[in-house]
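The step that takes the researchers longest sounds almost clerical: writing a folded protein down as plain text. Below is the pair of lines this work produces for a single protein:

——
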Amino acid sequence: MKVSGARVVVTGASRGIGAALAADLAGRGARVVLVARSAEALDKTAAELGGESFPADLADSSAIETLVRSIEAGGPIDVLVNNAGVDLTGDLVDLADDAIAQLLAVNLCAPMLLCRAVIPGMQRRGHGHIVNVSSLAGTNAIRGLAPYSASKAGLSHFTAGLRADLKHTNVTTTLAEIGPVGSTMLDSLRAHEPTRRALARLERLHLSVDLDQAVVVDALVGAIEREKRHVRLPKRAALFP
């Protein structure tokens, strides 16, 4: 997949890995399409990158088909990066119904529905690539992350099944299973004491490290260009899956 000239949709693109990935892709000549809930931040980033902005709440499953059709009205989608995600930390009995529902909607249902919406166009054109950004938390559950880990395990297994469905087509997939990245999410994880202790144990064993965002972005771009099946970071934790 040639990044230069490709039209790439990145969800969760208003901040963090999504914004950094969009910037890197735009710098390589891609036509970036940014999707996130935060309209003001998204519009600002899109303007800086010369990209397109499509504010959307991915927790609303009824809006996803319309979102994709609106994006496709401006041109074909060559690459879809399902990067948007929300975290939720705490003991299950303490978590609110709506928080769990939103988590599953954004982390699992939205990527499924976005894939379903973009694949027909990719198949008609004879090419396309999908990146689903999951987490090593989906393979190594620790206390305080039961719903989050379940959502990421589901996304990883969905991607494996999707790859099997697309085996005899020219649409390819990458599953990215990423460990902790230095961000506000880590602050949220460590605010829950049982989760902080579990992360500390993994860190003492050198199985978990705070990843550099630039390293993650470079790996994702390389996966798109080479249509790699998997990205697993940190590499020392690759045995978790």
